[in-house]
Amino acid sequence: NESDLKEVIKCISSALDFKEQLQKKVKKLGAGIKRKLCFALSMLGSPHITLLDEPSTGMDPKAKQHIWKAIRAAFKSKKRAAILTTHYMEEAEAVCDRVAILVSGKLRCIGTVQHLKTKFGKGYFLEMKLKEVPDLQMKEQLQRAVLHIFPNARPQESFSSILSYKIPKEDVHSLALSFSRLEEAKHAFNIEEYSFSQATLEQVFVELAKEQEEEDSFGTLNSMLWWERTQGERVVF
């Protein structure tokens, strides 16, 4: 009835934080609010399966957190499910129980976020922020210190006072020991803060994309070699 409908609208608009926009016309709403409205409409009738296409596109960080929280709450019950497509790995990691990654239209992997990180993450990521922009000598000294802790560490792109390294799994025998040595390096050098974490879902995607590109390039090369060989074997009368 009408009273129940008003209560549902009140609950959904409160959960998605757009109560103040309820009296506005849709065409006057911002892109982020329209996304929230689309999600709210999809929830009416409590469907068992819902398809969501990049539900947080166009939203600011606070609004994204609101809708991600609402999505998790809406599909907490095992009687309901959603299939969500997104280009944002942060969104997939925040909302999904299981993730499938497609590269160039091909399914490369599927599983829980932790499973994908463990299987395809290929190690850890170290990021250090120095208190001031380091000169070349300091960079070299710090790199030697990092290589002493992690012999196979690979430098990544650096920005101003931030230095990054990719750390392979075989270099991390003990997380406790790794953090202990990093703390020593922090005090020995001019390091303001550092983070040492498992590969993110976005880094997993990048690695899989690189593998796909290599496979595609290899396949193209094989096709070219096959074509050249068959042309050489042709007999012309």
From TrEMBL:
**For the ABCA1-4-like C-terminal R2 regulatory domain, which residue ranges apply?**
121-198
A Pfam match: R1_ABCA1
- Which GO cellular component terms are attached? late endosome; membrane
A GO MF annotation of the entry reads:
ABC-type transporter activity
InterPro entries on file: ABCA, P-loop_NTPase, R2_ABCA1-4-like
PANTHER family, from UniProt? ATP-BINDING CASSETTE TRANSPORTER SUBFAMILY A ABCA, CHOLESTEROL TRANSPORTER ABCA5
Protein's UniProt name: ABCA1-4-like C-terminal R2 regulatory domain-containing protein
Q: Which organism is it from?
A: Micrurus paraensis
